[in-house]
Write a structure and sequence with these properties.
Blueprint (H helix, E strand, L loop, with lengths): L20 H27 L4 H13 L7 H19 L5 H33 L9 H4 L3 H6 L16 H15 L1 H6 L1 H18 L11 H5 L1 H14 L5 H23 L10 H18 L6 H8 L1 H19 L6 H36 L16
Length: 386
Amino acid sequence: MRSPAWLRPTGTASAPDGYVPGVHAARALAVTMVIAAHVVGLWTGTVGFLWSPWQLYLGGIDLLRVDHQAGGHTGLLLFFLVSGYIVSQAAQGEGMAAFAVKRAARLLPAMVLAVALALVVGSVGHTAGWPPMAGFVVDRAQSPWTLLEAVGLGPTFGGIGALFVLWTLSVEYYWYVLLGLAIKPATKHPVATTWALMAAVFLLHRVAPHVPGPPYLVAEHLSYVFVILIGRWIYLRHRSTAATVSAVAGSLVCLGMYAWAHWPTVGDQLYRGAHPQLLAVGWAILLFCALLAFVRSGPWRPVAFIADISYGLYLFHLPAMFLVLPLVSRHGQLFPLGILLTLVLTLGLAWLSSRYLETPVRRWARRKLRGRGPAPVVVTEAAAGG
Protein backbone atom coordinates (compact mmCIF):
# COMPACT_ATOMS: atom_id res chain seq x y z
CA MET A 1 0.00 0.00 0.00
CA ARG A 2 1.42 3.37 -1.03
CA SER A 3 1.99 6.09 1.54
CA PRO A 4 -0.05 9.31 1.25
CA ALA A 5 1.48 11.93 -1.03
CA TRP A 6 2.68 14.12 1.83
CA LEU A 7 4.58 11.19 3.36
CA ARG A 8 6.37 10.24 0.16
CA PRO A 9 9.87 11.68 -0.31
CA THR A 10 10.49 14.45 -2.84
CA GLY A 11 13.60 15.23 -4.80
CA THR A 12 13.85 18.75 -3.45
CA ALA A 13 13.42 17.77 0.18
CA SER A 14 16.50 15.58 0.19
CA ALA A 15 18.97 18.42 -0.35
CA PRO A 16 20.12 20.23 2.81
CA ASP A 17 19.30 23.67 1.40
CA GLY A 18 16.67 22.50 -1.07
CA TYR A 19 13.67 24.63 -1.96
CA VAL A 20 10.44 22.94 -0.88
CA PRO A 21 7.47 24.68 -2.55
CA GLY A 22 4.86 23.35 -0.11
CA VAL A 23 6.80 24.63 2.89
CA HIS A 24 7.19 28.03 1.23
CA ALA A 25 3.43 28.16 0.62
CA ALA A 26 2.83 27.18 4.26
CA ARG A 27 4.87 30.15 5.41
CA ALA A 28 2.75 32.51 3.29
CA LEU A 29 -0.49 31.02 4.61
CA ALA A 30 0.72 31.18 8.21
CA VAL A 31 1.62 34.87 8.14
CA THR A 32 -1.63 35.72 6.35
CA MET A 33 -3.66 34.01 9.08
CA VAL A 34 -1.73 35.77 11.85
CA ILE A 35 -2.01 39.22 10.24
CA ALA A 36 -5.75 38.79 9.62
CA ALA A 37 -6.33 37.83 13.26
CA HIS A 38 -4.34 40.82 14.49
CA VAL A 39 -5.04 43.64 12.04
CA VAL A 40 -8.77 42.96 11.81
CA GLY A 41 -9.64 40.92 14.89
CA LEU A 42 -7.42 42.74 17.36
CA TRP A 43 -8.44 46.21 16.19
CA THR A 44 -12.18 45.53 16.13
CA GLY A 45 -11.81 44.10 19.63
CA THR A 46 -9.70 47.03 20.83
CA VAL A 47 -12.00 49.72 19.47
CA GLY A 48 -15.18 47.72 20.08
CA PHE A 49 -17.10 47.61 16.80
CA LEU A 50 -18.41 44.97 14.40
CA TRP A 51 -17.33 44.70 10.77
CA SER A 52 -19.65 42.51 8.72
CA PRO A 53 -17.00 40.85 6.47
CA TRP A 54 -15.08 39.85 9.59
CA GLN A 55 -18.22 38.49 11.22
CA LEU A 56 -18.79 36.27 8.17
CA TYR A 57 -15.21 35.03 8.42
CA LEU A 58 -15.64 34.30 12.12
CA GLY A 59 -18.77 32.33 11.31
CA GLY A 60 -16.68 29.99 9.17
CA ILE A 61 -14.02 29.75 11.88
CA ASP A 62 -16.66 28.85 14.44
CA LEU A 63 -18.22 26.29 12.12
CA LEU A 64 -14.86 24.54 11.66
CA ARG A 65 -13.87 25.17 15.31
CA VAL A 66 -10.45 26.24 14.07
CA ASP A 67 -9.08 28.14 17.07
CA HIS A 68 -9.82 30.69 19.76
CA GLN A 69 -7.87 33.46 18.01
CA ALA A 70 -9.77 33.66 14.72
CA GLY A 71 -7.24 31.45 12.93
CA GLY A 72 -4.21 33.33 14.24
CA HIS A 73 -3.20 30.57 16.64
CA THR A 74 -3.39 27.98 13.87
CA GLY A 75 -1.21 30.25 11.73
CA LEU A 76 1.34 30.42 14.55
CA LEU A 77 1.33 26.63 14.92
CA LEU A 78 1.84 26.38 11.16
CA PHE A 79 4.91 28.63 11.52
CA PHE A 80 6.30 26.27 14.17
CA LEU A 81 5.80 23.27 11.86
CA VAL A 82 7.64 25.15 9.11
CA SER A 83 10.50 25.86 11.53
CA GLY A 84 10.75 22.20 12.52
CA TYR A 85 11.01 21.21 8.87
CA ILE A 86 13.26 23.95 7.51
CA VAL A 87 15.68 24.30 10.40
CA SER A 88 16.14 20.52 10.43
CA GLN A 89 16.94 20.74 6.73
CA ALA A 90 19.30 23.71 7.17
CA ALA A 91 21.18 21.98 10.01
CA GLN A 92 22.20 18.98 7.90
CA GLY A 93 25.98 18.82 7.81
CA GLU A 94 26.40 22.09 9.72
CA GLY A 95 28.82 22.69 12.57
CA MET A 96 27.53 24.12 15.84
CA ALA A 97 29.20 27.51 15.38
CA ALA A 98 28.05 27.95 11.79
CA PHE A 99 24.53 26.94 12.73
CA ALA A 100 24.44 29.51 15.55
CA VAL A 101 25.83 32.32 13.40
CA LYS A 102 23.35 31.67 10.59
CA ARG A 103 20.40 31.55 12.97
CA ALA A 104 21.50 34.80 14.60
CA ALA A 105 21.93 36.46 11.20
CA ARG A 106 18.45 35.28 10.26
CA LEU A 107 16.59 36.50 13.36
CA LEU A 108 18.37 39.41 14.97
CA PRO A 109 18.60 42.26 12.40
CA ALA A 110 14.87 42.52 11.66
CA MET A 111 14.03 41.86 15.31
CA VAL A 112 16.10 44.81 16.53
CA LEU A 113 14.58 47.10 13.89
CA ALA A 114 11.02 45.97 14.65
CA VAL A 115 11.42 46.53 18.40
CA ALA A 116 12.84 50.01 17.76
CA LEU A 117 9.87 50.84 15.52
CA ALA A 118 7.42 49.44 18.08
CA LEU A 119 9.03 51.56 20.78
CA VAL A 120 8.57 54.72 18.70
CA VAL A 121 4.98 53.92 17.67
CA GLY A 122 3.94 52.81 21.14
CA SER A 123 5.46 55.87 22.81
CA VAL A 124 3.93 58.30 20.30
CA GLY A 125 0.55 56.61 20.67
CA HIS A 126 0.73 56.76 24.46
CA THR A 127 1.52 60.48 24.35
CA ALA A 128 -1.21 61.17 21.78
CA GLY A 129 -3.85 59.18 23.65
CA TRP A 130 -4.35 56.58 20.91
CA PRO A 131 -5.73 53.14 21.72
CA PRO A 132 -2.83 51.33 23.45
CA MET A 133 -0.58 49.24 21.26
CA ALA A 134 -1.18 45.58 22.06
CA GLY A 135 1.25 44.37 24.72
CA PHE A 136 3.00 47.74 24.96
CA VAL A 137 4.02 48.58 28.54
CA VAL A 138 5.34 52.13 28.68
CA ASP A 139 7.54 51.85 31.77
CA ARG A 140 9.03 48.57 30.64
CA ALA A 141 9.47 49.55 26.98
CA GLN A 142 11.18 52.84 27.86
CA SER A 143 13.84 51.10 29.92
CA PRO A 144 16.91 48.89 29.44
CA TRP A 145 14.55 45.89 29.26
CA THR A 146 13.90 46.86 25.65
CA LEU A 147 17.52 46.09 24.80
CA LEU A 148 16.94 42.51 25.95
CA GLU A 149 13.66 42.33 24.07
CA ALA A 150 15.35 43.59 20.90
CA VAL A 151 17.45 40.42 20.81
CA GLY A 152 14.56 38.14 21.71
CA LEU A 153 15.20 37.75 25.45
CA GLY A 154 12.34 39.91 26.73
CA PRO A 155 9.93 37.00 27.33
CA THR A 156 12.49 35.18 29.45
CA PHE A 157 13.02 38.12 31.77
CA GLY A 158 9.49 38.71 32.93
CA GLY A 159 7.31 39.63 29.97
CA ILE A 160 6.97 41.85 26.91
CA GLY A 161 7.34 45.60 26.89
CA ALA A 162 7.29 46.73 23.25
CA LEU A 163 6.38 43.99 20.75
CA PHE A 164 4.39 41.10 22.18
CA VAL A 165 4.72 38.74 19.19
CA LEU A 166 8.37 38.26 20.19
CA TRP A 167 7.37 35.68 22.78
CA THR A 168 7.29 33.24 19.87
CA LEU A 169 10.96 33.94 19.18
CA SER A 170 11.84 32.53 22.59
CA VAL A 171 10.28 29.25 21.38
CA GLU A 172 12.57 29.39 18.36
CA TYR A 173 15.56 30.04 20.61
CA TYR A 174 14.81 26.93 22.66
CA TRP A 175 14.59 24.90 19.45
CA TYR A 176 17.80 26.32 18.00
CA VAL A 177 19.78 25.72 21.20
CA LEU A 178 18.57 22.14 21.55
CA LEU A 179 19.20 21.25 17.92
CA GLY A 180 22.51 23.13 17.90
CA LEU A 181 23.79 21.17 20.89
CA ALA A 182 22.77 17.93 19.21
CA ILE A 183 23.75 18.91 15.69
CA LYS A 184 26.36 16.19 15.10
CA PRO A 185 24.27 13.24 16.31
CA ALA A 186 21.25 14.79 14.56
CA THR A 187 23.10 14.38 11.27
CA LYS A 188 24.41 10.87 11.96
CA HIS A 189 21.44 9.46 13.91
CA PRO A 190 18.48 11.73 13.12
CA VAL A 191 15.68 9.50 14.38
CA ALA A 192 17.31 8.60 17.70
CA THR A 193 18.33 12.22 18.20
CA THR A 194 14.77 13.41 17.63
CA TRP A 195 13.52 11.09 20.38
CA ALA A 196 16.30 12.42 22.61
CA LEU A 197 15.24 16.00 21.84
CA MET A 198 11.67 15.13 22.81
CA ALA A 199 12.91 13.71 26.12
CA ALA A 200 15.03 16.82 26.72
CA VAL A 201 12.06 19.16 26.18
CA PHE A 202 9.96 17.00 28.51
CA LEU A 203 12.57 17.21 31.27
CA LEU A 204 13.11 20.94 30.79
CA HIS A 205 9.38 21.52 31.01
CA ARG A 206 9.29 19.68 34.33
CA VAL A 207 11.65 22.23 35.90
CA ALA A 208 10.63 25.39 34.02
CA PRO A 209 8.50 28.00 35.81
CA HIS A 210 5.06 28.81 34.45
CA VAL A 211 5.71 32.55 34.73
CA PRO A 212 8.29 34.35 32.53
CA GLY A 213 11.53 35.10 34.33
CA PRO A 214 14.85 33.55 35.34
CA PRO A 215 16.11 30.82 34.88
CA TYR A 216 15.25 31.89 31.35
CA LEU A 217 12.83 29.08 30.65
CA VAL A 218 9.06 29.42 30.38
CA ALA A 219 7.00 26.24 30.60
CA GLU A 220 4.24 27.38 28.23
CA HIS A 221 6.77 28.50 25.61
CA LEU A 222 8.65 25.21 25.89
CA SER A 223 5.46 23.29 25.18
CA TYR A 224 5.38 24.67 21.63
CA VAL A 225 8.73 23.01 20.90
CA PHE A 226 6.76 19.75 20.73
CA VAL A 227 4.87 21.23 17.74
CA ILE A 228 8.19 22.17 16.14
CA LEU A 229 9.35 18.58 16.62
CA ILE A 230 6.30 17.34 14.74
CA GLY A 231 7.56 19.47 11.85
CA ARG A 232 10.93 17.75 12.24
CA TRP A 233 9.29 14.31 12.09
CA ILE A 234 7.52 15.32 8.88
CA TYR A 235 10.86 16.46 7.46
CA LEU A 236 12.57 13.18 8.37
CA ARG A 237 9.85 11.18 6.67
CA HIS A 238 9.82 13.45 3.63
CA ARG A 239 13.50 12.85 3.00
CA SER A 240 13.20 9.09 3.69
CA THR A 241 15.27 9.26 6.88
CA ALA A 242 12.45 7.97 9.08
CA ALA A 243 9.96 5.23 8.27
CA THR A 244 6.30 6.18 8.08
CA VAL A 245 5.47 4.26 11.25
CA SER A 246 8.31 5.90 13.16
CA ALA A 247 7.38 9.41 11.97
CA VAL A 248 3.70 8.97 12.79
CA ALA A 249 4.48 7.47 16.18
CA GLY A 250 6.92 10.27 17.01
CA SER A 251 4.39 12.90 15.93
CA LEU A 252 1.64 11.36 18.07
CA VAL A 253 3.93 11.24 21.10
CA CYS A 254 4.82 14.92 20.52
CA LEU A 255 1.13 15.74 20.32
CA GLY A 256 0.53 13.91 23.59
CA MET A 257 3.42 15.76 25.23
CA TYR A 258 2.05 19.07 23.97
CA ALA A 259 -1.30 18.23 25.57
CA TRP A 260 0.41 17.22 28.82
CA ALA A 261 2.45 20.44 28.86
CA HIS A 262 -0.57 22.64 28.13
CA TRP A 263 -2.91 21.03 30.63
CA PRO A 264 -1.86 23.21 33.61
CA THR A 265 -2.64 26.33 31.56
CA VAL A 266 -5.84 25.48 29.67
CA GLY A 267 -7.16 22.30 31.28
CA ASP A 268 -9.99 20.56 29.47
CA GLN A 269 -10.11 23.35 26.88
CA LEU A 270 -7.57 21.17 25.10
CA TYR A 271 -10.35 18.92 23.86
CA ARG A 272 -13.66 20.63 24.59
CA GLY A 273 -15.33 24.00 24.24
CA ALA A 274 -15.96 26.07 21.13
CA HIS A 275 -12.34 25.87 19.94
CA PRO A 276 -10.42 22.89 21.38
CA GLN A 277 -6.72 23.72 21.31
CA LEU A 278 -5.68 20.24 20.21
CA LEU A 279 -7.95 20.70 17.22
CA ALA A 280 -5.97 23.83 16.28
CA VAL A 281 -2.80 21.72 16.20
CA GLY A 282 -4.62 19.19 14.06
CA TRP A 283 -5.70 21.88 11.61
CA ALA A 284 -2.15 23.20 11.39
CA ILE A 285 -0.74 19.72 10.69
CA LEU A 286 -3.47 19.07 8.10
CA LEU A 287 -2.79 22.36 6.31
CA PHE A 288 0.96 21.80 6.35
CA CYS A 289 0.74 18.26 5.00
CA ALA A 290 -1.82 19.27 2.36
CA LEU A 291 0.48 22.01 1.09
CA LEU A 292 3.41 19.59 0.99
CA ALA A 293 1.28 17.18 -1.02
CA PHE A 294 -0.32 19.55 -3.50
CA VAL A 295 2.15 22.42 -3.98
CA ARG A 296 4.76 20.54 -5.97
CA SER A 297 6.19 23.44 -7.94
CA GLY A 298 6.91 27.05 -7.09
CA PRO A 299 3.79 28.79 -5.70
CA TRP A 300 2.08 31.67 -7.48
CA ARG A 301 4.46 34.67 -7.60
CA PRO A 302 2.52 36.87 -5.13
CA VAL A 303 2.37 33.92 -2.70
CA ALA A 304 6.10 33.37 -3.07
CA PHE A 305 6.70 37.09 -2.41
CA ILE A 306 4.65 36.95 0.80
CA ALA A 307 6.59 33.85 1.88
CA ASP A 308 9.96 35.45 1.11
CA ILE A 309 9.27 38.40 3.42
CA SER A 310 7.05 36.57 5.93
CA TYR A 311 9.42 37.11 8.85
CA GLY A 312 9.34 40.87 8.34
CA LEU A 313 5.57 40.80 7.87
CA TYR A 314 5.22 38.99 11.17
CA LEU A 315 7.37 41.52 13.01
CA PHE A 316 6.24 44.79 11.43
CA HIS A 317 2.48 44.39 11.10
CA LEU A 318 1.75 45.37 14.72
CA PRO A 319 3.65 48.69 14.77
CA ALA A 320 2.27 49.42 11.30
CA MET A 321 -1.36 48.86 12.33
CA PHE A 322 -1.03 50.85 15.57
CA LEU A 323 0.42 53.73 13.58
CA VAL A 324 -2.10 53.72 10.72
CA LEU A 325 -5.40 52.67 12.29
CA PRO A 326 -5.51 55.29 15.09
CA LEU A 327 -5.12 57.94 12.39
CA VAL A 328 -7.48 56.48 9.78
CA SER A 329 -10.00 54.36 11.66
CA ARG A 330 -9.80 55.28 15.32
CA HIS A 331 -13.50 54.59 15.96
CA GLY A 332 -14.07 52.09 13.16
CA GLN A 333 -14.72 54.58 10.37
CA LEU A 334 -13.02 54.03 6.98
CA PHE A 335 -11.89 50.62 8.24
CA PRO A 336 -11.31 49.05 4.78
CA LEU A 337 -9.05 51.98 3.91
CA GLY A 338 -7.23 51.54 7.23
CA ILE A 339 -6.67 47.86 6.52
CA LEU A 340 -5.38 48.64 3.02
CA LEU A 341 -2.94 51.30 4.23
CA THR A 342 -1.76 49.05 7.07
CA LEU A 343 -1.04 46.23 4.62
CA VAL A 344 0.77 48.55 2.21
CA LEU A 345 2.96 49.91 5.01
CA THR A 346 3.62 46.44 6.41
CA LEU A 347 4.58 45.06 3.00
CA GLY A 348 6.85 48.04 2.38
CA LEU A 349 8.62 47.74 5.72
CA ALA A 350 9.06 43.98 5.35
CA TRP A 351 10.41 44.28 1.81
CA LEU A 352 12.83 47.08 2.72
CA SER A 353 14.04 45.12 5.74
CA SER A 354 14.52 41.99 3.67
CA ARG A 355 16.24 43.76 0.79
CA TYR A 356 18.52 46.17 2.62
CA LEU A 357 19.05 44.67 6.07
CA GLU A 358 18.32 40.96 6.41
CA THR A 359 19.69 39.77 3.07
CA PRO A 360 22.99 41.71 3.30
CA VAL A 361 23.58 40.49 6.86
CA ARG A 362 22.89 36.88 5.89
CA ARG A 363 25.18 37.14 2.87
CA TRP A 364 27.91 38.66 5.01
CA ALA A 365 27.57 35.85 7.58
CA ARG A 366 27.71 33.16 4.92
CA ARG A 367 30.70 34.81 3.27
CA LYS A 368 32.58 34.97 6.57
CA LEU A 369 31.76 31.37 7.37
CA ARG A 370 32.77 30.07 3.98
CA GLY A 371 35.79 32.33 3.57
CA ARG A 372 35.04 33.12 -0.07
CA GLY A 373 32.81 35.24 -2.27
CA PRO A 374 29.11 36.03 -1.75
CA ALA A 375 26.87 33.01 -1.40
CA PRO A 376 23.27 32.87 -2.54
CA VAL A 377 20.64 33.43 0.12
CA VAL A 378 18.20 30.54 0.45
CA VAL A 379 14.62 31.72 0.77
CA THR A 380 13.62 28.66 2.79
CA GLU A 381 15.51 29.60 5.94
CA ALA A 382 13.37 29.47 9.06
CA ALA A 383 11.03 32.27 9.98
CA ALA A 384 9.41 32.25 13.39
CA GLY A 385 6.14 32.52 14.03
CA GLY A 386 7.68 34.25 11.31
